[in-house]
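Before a colleague's protein record goes any further, I have to sign it off. Thanks in advance; the entry in question is below:
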Amino acid sequence: MQLCVEAVYRAKMLNKFYCRFDTSSAPLPHSSSLTDHATPPFLITEHEVRNLLRRQNSRKAAGNDQISATTLKWCADGLAPILTQPSLVERLDLWPLHL
């Protein structure tokens, strides 16, 4: 019985600990104050993309897309111009490259 009571106590303490992130005593900022400052566009050059693709570790496993690092390295010259087109990048569901 002691173990059961102790487990329930620990569960409640953990719940209390992690729930503190769900509530905040500070009021949230007004949404207009968040958008007053124009954020600079995210720009990356074709050269930077090409270099990132070429630096992929060939010994690492393929990601969710099942494209190997070796394939990305071989196709870096062809992929870099495509991946830096703003109209295409907006439509892609890109995963970050882990170097």
Remarks:
- The mean pLDDT is 75.
- The two ends are 51 Å apart (CA to CA).
- The chain has six helices and no strands.
